[in-house]
Amino acid sequence: MPTDRYVAIHETCYNNGNVIEGNYTFPPLELAPLRFDPNSPSEYTTVNESLKLLYGYTYRYSRPWTIDQNTTAVGIYTYNYNLQSGAIVTGVSKNGTINLLFDNQSIDLKTGEHWDSPVVTTSTANESYSNVTIPIKSQIKWSILNMGIYNKTK
Q1: Above 90 in pLDDT, residue 2?
Q2: Which of 8, 20, 85, 137 has its CB 3.0 to 4.6 Å from that of 142, i.e. a possible disulfide?
């Protein structure tokens, strides 16, 4: 990758919970727009010749009564870089393909491609909503998106 460019990668952790017993009425939900702009790397990190990737990470928590998400971003300057999911960025090719390892599996993501993990965690618990205890089954999975190549200067 030329030193005047970087690749943007976005990883999302989905923690989805569903009611497993009973009938409940919940308010309609709206998800706030994603706040990660790969065109503005200096908002998140130091932009220099060493910047290889801009890494955005979103944690999305959803239950029938709420959806919450939090996004952060950092610069990746060296390989091998561990993502939140445990995937490891091992390199980026000149055409912007991101090379990853996840659970000893090699994954190559071309520009615009994404990869979804299988469900990595499943659990059940009682959670509270409006002073009512509701049995919930939660599943966690990951998605990684290659957002493409960007210029370091506008």
Answers
A1: no
A2: 85
Full 3-state SS string of the chain: CCCCEEEEEEEEEEEEEEECCCCCCCCCCCCCCCCCCCCCHHHCCCCCCCCCEEEEEEEEEEECCEEEEEEEEEEECCCCEECCCCCEEEEECCCCCEEEEECCEEEEECCCCEEECCCCEEEEEEEEECCEEEEEEEEEEEEEEEEEEEECCC
- Per-residue pLDDT tens over the stretch 54-91: 999 999 999 998 888 899 999 999 999 999 999 999 99
What count of other Cβ atoms lies within 10 Å of the Cβ of residue 74? 13
Q: What's the structural domain count of the chain?
A: 1
Would you state the pLDDT for residue 154? 65
